[in-house]
Each structure stands twice: as structure tokens, then as C-alpha cells.
Design goal:
- The chain has helices at about 1-15, 20-25, 35-50, 150, 165-170, 185-195, 205-210, and strands spanning about 55-60, 70-75, 80-85, 120-130, 135-140, 155-160, 180, 200.
- The protein is an alpha+beta fold and about 220 residues long.
- The N and C termini lie far apart (about 40 Å).
């Protein structure tokens, strides 16, 4: 009986996405928006309930923001602490914006050869060394949205075209669809999130937001 009581108390005290205070996370960032964070926490909680989460870490990318702004955040969900806030590139397959700018990701794809980024919920997988050095494989969990990530070789890696100085000059480059970050932080980020944490990529795409199984249909 005592063992059962201890188990029940442990379950009640276990951290979860619902226990994380969004305001506390927002207070640690420069430009993470509350509506994006709320959706990310919801997606994380659904992934956790589905048994996909092995490491209690959530990484959010907001591709509605331009590339010269920091638009990637990694949160330790055990304590609600922001570990990293970084710049991240998007795929060059996205069309140019008004005036020929390349700063915004305007379209997304799950298809090979498009060189576009994908939206939705990913689980981080194993690391390897490739043409961009130390890199992290990603498994997309949303059918028709990002589930071809492995086939497309969509991975997280460092890239010389992502630097603070290039961000200041609004010259962050574009990838082949991968979320590429600064070389100086790529290993730190990869080691922090590898092997079973959540990566959630956002853009206000109505069809995806309405149909994602990791977001509340209500």
C-alpha cells in the first residue's frame, strides 16, 4: 500500500508541458510570441502523451519571423528554462518575398527536390558526420507534412551562411530545406536536443494548423 502511495505522489509531481509557465519562458526570450509558444506546448504535450518524447526538451522554430531575427528557442521542459535562442535558416526553395527578399519562408513542402522547409512536429534522432560536419537526423511525425524528412535528408546542421554578423546585415543564407544554425553553436544545440526530444516548426499555415494531430481540433 505504501509503495502504491509513493508511486501516486511521484506521478502527481512529475513535470509536464501543462506545468510549465508560459510567462516564465516568454520572459527569457527576446521575440518568442505567446501564441506560438502556446501551440508549441500543446504539440509537445500531445507528443508526450503519445509516447514519442524520450528527452524532456522542446525546440521551437518560428518561420513566420524573418531570418535576421533569432527565431529558434530550446527549452528544458523539466524546469521551464530557455537553453538557447538562435538564428536559423530556411529552405531556398521558398519563393522570394516582395522586392526579391530572401528573409522570409513563404512556402513549405514534404516533397523531395523542392529544397523547401517542412512544418510540424519532429522527434530528434541520431547524430552523424556529413558534408556539414556534426549533424542531427530528424523524424517527422506528421503524415503528408514532414514524414519524408529522412528521405529528403532534412537534418539540423551548422552552416557558414548563418552568423550573427550576417544577421545584422540581413544576409542569412538559405539551406536545402534543413534548419541550419551557426557553426559555433551547432554542436552545443545538437548535443542538447539529440535522441528523442521535440522539434516543432511553426508558420501560420491554416490547413496544417487545422489538421495537425498534435494540435487541439477545437
Amino acid at each position: 500500500m505504501r509503495k502504491l502511495l509513493i508511486f501516486a505522489v511521484t506521478v502527481l509531481l512529475s513535470p509536464s508541458a501543462s506545468a510549465v509557465e508560459p510567462e516564465a519562458i516568454l520572459g527569457q526570450t527576446n521575440n518568442l510570441r505567446s501564441e506560438v509558444l502556446e501551440l508549441a506546448l500543446e504539440a509537445y504535450e500531445q507528443a508526450e502523451a503519445g509516447g514519442f518524447v524520450r528527452r524532456e526538451i522542446l525546440t521551437i522554430i518560428d518561420y513566420e519571423l524573418p531570418s535576421y531575427q533569432q527565431r529558434l528557442w530550446t527549452v528544458d521542459m523539466k524546469v521551464g528554462r530557455v537553453i538557447l535562442q538562435e538564428w536559423v535558416a530556411h529552405g531556398m526553395g521558398s519563393p522570394r518575398g516582395s522586392g526579391g527578399t530572401m528573409e522570409e519562408a513563404l512556402s513549405f513542402s514534404n516533397d523531395k527536390g523542392t529544397l523547401k522547409s517542412s512544418l510540424g512536429l519532429f522527434i530528434t534522432a541520431e547524430t552523424y558526420y556529413g558534408r556539414h560536419g556534426y549533424s542531427l537526423k530528424l523524424d517527422g511525425l506528421e503524415e503528408g507534412v514532414n514524414d519524408k524528412a529522412r528521405e529528403r535528408l532534412i537534418v539540423l546542421h551548422g552552416a557558414q551562411y548563418v552568423t550573427e554578423s550576417r544577421a545584422e546585415d540581413r544576409l542569412i543564407g538559405r539551406s536545402w530545406g534543413c534548419p541550419a544554425v551557426r557553426p559555433g553553436v551547432s554542436k552545443i544545440l545538437i548535443d542538447a536536443i539529440k535522441d528523442g526530444s521535440v522539434l516543432w516548426i511553426y508558420y501560420p499555415h491554416d490547413e496544417w494548423l487545422d489538421e495537425s494531430e498534435f494540435l487541439d481540433e477545437d
